[in-house]
Amino acid sequence: MLYALILAGGVGSRFWPKSSVSNPKQFLRIFGNQSLLQTTVSRVRPLIHKDCIYVVGNERYMERIREQLPDIADTNLIIEPEARETAAGIGLGAVKLIKRDPQAVMAVLPSDHFIGNEQDFRRYLAWAAEYAHTSRMLVTFGIRPTEPKTGYGYIQIGRLLLQDGVHRIYQAKEFTEKPDFERALHFLQTGMYLWNSGMFVWRVATLLQAFRQHMPSMYTRLSRIYDALDTPQEQEVIREEYRNMEKVSVDYGLMEKADNVAVIPADFAWDDVGSWRSLERFLPHDDKGNIVNGLHVGIDTYGSIIESDDMLITTIGVRDLLIVQADRSLLVADKERDQEIKELVKRIDMRDLREFL
User: Fold this and answer.
1) With the CA atoms of 174, 175, 179 and 181 taken in that order, what torsion angle do they form, in degrees rounded to the nearest 10?
2) Which end of the chain, N or C, is surrounded by fewer C-beta atoms within 10 Å?
3) Predicted TM-score (pTM) of this structure
4) Which residues partner with 142 through β-bridges?
5) Of the candidates 67, 72, 86, which has an alpha carbon nearest to the alpha carbon of residue 44?
6) pLDDT in tens, 265-287
7) 3-state DSSP helix/strand/coil percent for the chain, to nearest 5?
8) Which GO terms describe its molecular function (predicted)?
């Protein structure tokens, strides 16, 4: 049976000041009336029953998750005792799922991505699940790059493993994390590289075998958690083992090391919504090229992203700015430098101004 494990633990600091420690990106309503988290669940519901949808996240966000996903049972909410990278969260979800269903196939989906044609996405997901079940491969989706982006990971495609109509599956030959511009341009020009989407499909048993082979220390800790599930000691064991797990992504810890990784080039529109500028590809512009959400009055204002919670923002004679107001914070930046917001957040923290984060 196919299950979904939705990762809902990130903060999304590049969306500050709209996103914050108490209100991370996955809870924001960016593309409509639903939050990114709600949209992720709605996207898979026609394919996966709600009882087979699990959400993993830090305990500080569990009340928000319950509030936004009232149809998901508490037993399907997997609480991380503290913030860890994706390998730990996925591993925790894996041992809970295999306890329920030893034959489970799990789709791992970040909660903060944009996906265009959802029907196409579900077709890809169903096909990947079938392949993962029969092949014992670790399957990921790759997105055909449209520009030399340096903020994404890349996957080099190897030999063709399977073709079924328009769908193809390749061996994943090599992973490269966030290359410089020259390498990213080379990757784009060769046509042999895909953006790493961070979405995975695998048999849970296959995943745990990969943990055993490539991350034996984490596998041992996951095994102890498995043994404690459904016992009075469950939460105590999870807390104890979790605090000692490595802080490492599943890409670095497993996918880059395993030799049974397959990648499916996916043609649906996708974005990890990693920065304010990513919104320009999906949200409507006014006649001067601005994206405006909130109250704004401007004169000679062009190509800007303007976001306001409850203030009137006024502009005269500006171009290509990022202006975001939320709560008591206001960000004004050159739109081209939106990737530096993460560094700005660090500086705010260093100035002991955490109340604004």
Assistant:
1) 60
2) N
3) 0.91
4) 196, 265
5) 72
6) 998 889 888 889 888 888 899 99
7) 40, 30, 30
8) GTP binding; mannose-1-phosphate guanylyltransferase (GTP) activity
